[in-house]
């Protein structure tokens, strides 16, 4: 309430992460927490703010926070085949300008001006409903006759049909602008699009401000159990979105009022929080969301700072944990159009979503991978910002470590791609065994104990004190995350009676997935052991899919078909999931026949070491 926004609650205010620590300088506060973390803080004047009640005037000192900026790399749609993008010569955007020639009225066919306009606009298709406002009708007669029936019509697509927003005399070029938006659990991306030619005018990406109140969807659902907190989370995502909209419009001098449409992709929880829909029933049996296919809504009601009448359309979801970010992402693949092959689609992030199938059938599931690959819960973990190690190599004797740092300079942590690479290197060098235990007998100064925990030193400070380390609990956390994703993949394959050899291509989606090296991910058992050429990175496919749907009616219609065709499997009710999960709690797996190439490399490394 005091406006302090630097406090982050990845655990959703449960008092388990210790990220919201403050020092009490003066005043009285009542601590409600208990447990190991609370005891460790006792006597240090440090308290978890989410577990502490203010009882009087109080002064607190915030722990120093380091500002971080997103690493934004290019336009994600260039990562997919041009064949999957709409034809720019025949776009049909959510809001568009149609150059029409309306025939003059005659004695033989004395249809009204409005009827003649509608017939030309719809191609005489009676099934298409067309509406308008009275002020459009007031000027329609003059506008039609000014240049012999040549008019430019501004049309907005709605759930019920088309809405004529304006009619201008003559054939004129009118630039209507739209937004493609991806609301991710961790990051949010916005693209400004000229809907006349489909050109992307600018892109902006930022962290989802809701991270302050929970690192994953479960934490945020729990946090939003009362109306005040639900509105708080809605305010945080609108804060993020509107700042990005202001930035991207300002950069190219586009008035926000000229933005007349937005297409939004997001998982089911993110869409509920955007619209202030209670999300609690998403995680309570029988796991039913308020809505999967959200009706089109005016931007003014949603809260976006564009034209208040602009239509905001959300990609349709499938279930509680497979949302519109997945259906829109599939537009970036061959999966919805290819009848002859079988494809696997993986969106690797805070939540892991998997789709298996082709144009004839689709099966989907989701797993709670957790935020470990986003850096949360890892001692040296951080997001992909400046100062993060994104690639790492370790010499055979485990004495030297080489790495690449985002932005260069001295590292301050390791992001997800670096953690996957690190774990694979440690396995191959014998630093960690297949159960995740560190080999403390290695003859290297990098094997140390930190707070009574076995650890491997990645980097020291200038005084020779271990600065960046990975501990056994960190490794266990990473193994749990990769096990959840691989177990979901293997189980969905079993449920439809397929083996890995039948997969023609694996599409890896998500901003995080773009930077993961396939070899590293296979080595630790995150991805299946398939030929590397079968893997294709498609970047932020949710954003790319939102862009495609924004400018193409054909693809918007295709989204509804994708959602209707998809069968959702609830892993939590599958008795075999825990068996698959436990089997994957090993590097790379307890069943090494599933990872023959890794087994071969491990054997070669062991032989070389002997």
Largest beta-sheet characterization = 6 strands, mixed
Structural class: alpha/beta
In which range does the helix fraction lie? 25-40%
* First and last CA, distance: 62 Å
Question: Averaged pLDDT, please?
Answer: 89
Stretches where pLDDT is under 50 for at least 5 consecutive residues are 65-77
Shape: globular
CATH superfamily of the largest domain: Domain of unknown function (DUF4445)
- Beta-strand percent range: 15-25%
CATH topology of the largest domain: Nucleotidyltransferase, domain 5
What's the CATH class of the largest domain, please? Alpha Beta
Please tell me the CATH architecture of the largest domain by its name: 2-Layer Sandwich
Number of strands: 27
Cα-based radius of gyration, to the nearest Å: 27 Å
Strand line-up in the sheet with most strands: 12-11-10-13-15-14
Number of distinct helices? 15
Number of domains: 5
């Amino acid at each position: 309430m005091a406006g302090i926004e630097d406090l982050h609650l990845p655990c959703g205010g449960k008092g388990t992460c210790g990220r919201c620590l403050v020092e009490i300088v003066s005043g009285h506060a009542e601590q409600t927490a208990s447990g190991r973390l609370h005891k460790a803080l006792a006597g240090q004047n440090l308290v978890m703010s989410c577990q502490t009640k203010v009882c009087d005037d109080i002064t607190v000192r915030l722990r120093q926070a380091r500002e971080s900026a997103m690493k934004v790399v290019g336009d994600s749609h260039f990562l997919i085949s041009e064949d999957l993008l709409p034809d720019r010569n025949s776009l049909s955007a959510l809001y568009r300008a149609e150059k029409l020639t309306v025939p003059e009225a005659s004695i033989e066919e004395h249809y009204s001006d409005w009827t003649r306009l509608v017939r030309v606009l719809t191609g005489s298709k009676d099934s298409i409903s067309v509406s308008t406002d009275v002020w459009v009708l007031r000027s329609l007669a003059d506008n039609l006759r000014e240049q012999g029936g040549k008019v430019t019509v501004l049309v907005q697509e709605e759930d019920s049909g088309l809405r004529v927003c304006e009619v201008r005399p003559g054939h004129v070029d009118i630039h209507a602008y739209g937004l493609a938006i991806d609301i991710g659990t961790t990051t949010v991306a916005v693209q400004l699009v000229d809907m006349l030619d489909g050109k992307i005018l600018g892109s902006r990406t930022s962290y989802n401000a809701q991270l302050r109140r929970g690192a994953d969807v479960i934490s945020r659902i729990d946090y939003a159990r009362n109306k005040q907190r639900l509105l708080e989370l809605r305010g945080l995502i609108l804060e993020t979105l509107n700042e990005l909209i202001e930035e991207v419009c300002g950069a190219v001098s586009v008035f926000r009022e000229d933005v007349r449409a937005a297409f939004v992709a997001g998982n089911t929880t993110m869409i509920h929080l955007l619209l202030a829909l209670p999300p609690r029933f998403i995680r309570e049996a029988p796991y039913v969301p308020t809505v999967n296919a959200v009706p089109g809504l005016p931007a003014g009601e949603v809260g976006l700072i564009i034209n208040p009448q602009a239509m905001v359309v959300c990609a349709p979801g499938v279930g509680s944990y497979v949302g519109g970010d997945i259906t829109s992402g599939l537009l970036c693949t061959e999966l919805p159009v290819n009848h002859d092959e079988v494809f696997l689609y993986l969106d690797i992030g805070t939540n892991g979503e998997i789709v298996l199938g082709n144009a004839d059938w689709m099966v989907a599931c989701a797993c709670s991978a957790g935020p470990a690959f986003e850096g949360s819960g890892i001692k040296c973990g951080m997001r992909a910002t400046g100062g993060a190690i994104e690639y790492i190599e370790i010499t055979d004797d485990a004495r030297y470590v080489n790495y690449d740092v985002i932005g260069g300079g001295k590292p301050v942590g390791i992001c997800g791609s670096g953690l996957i690479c690190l774990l694979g290197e440690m396995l191959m060098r014998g630093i960690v065994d297949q159960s995740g235990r560190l080999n403390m007998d290695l003859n290297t100064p990098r094997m140390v104990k930190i707070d009574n925990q076995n650890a491997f030193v990645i980097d020291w400070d200038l005084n020779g004190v271990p600065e960046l380390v990975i501990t056994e609990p960190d490794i266990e956390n990473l193994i749990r995350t990769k096990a959840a994703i691989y177990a979901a993949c293997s189980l969905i394959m079993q449920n439809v009676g397929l083996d890995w050899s039948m997969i023609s291509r694996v599409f890896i989606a998500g901003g995080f997935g773009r930077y993961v090296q396939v070899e590293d991910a296979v080595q630790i058992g995150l991805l299946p052991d398939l030929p590397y050429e079968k893997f294709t990175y498609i970047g932020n496919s949710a954003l790319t899919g939102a862009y495609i749907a924004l400018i193409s009616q054909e693809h918007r219609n295709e989204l509804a078909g994708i959602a209707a065709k998809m069968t959702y499997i609830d892993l939590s009710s599958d008795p075999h999931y825990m068996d698959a999960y436990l089997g994957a709690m090993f590097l790379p797996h307890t069943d090494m026949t599933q990872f023959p190439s890794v087994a071969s490399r491990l054997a070669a490394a062991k032989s070389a070491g002997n």
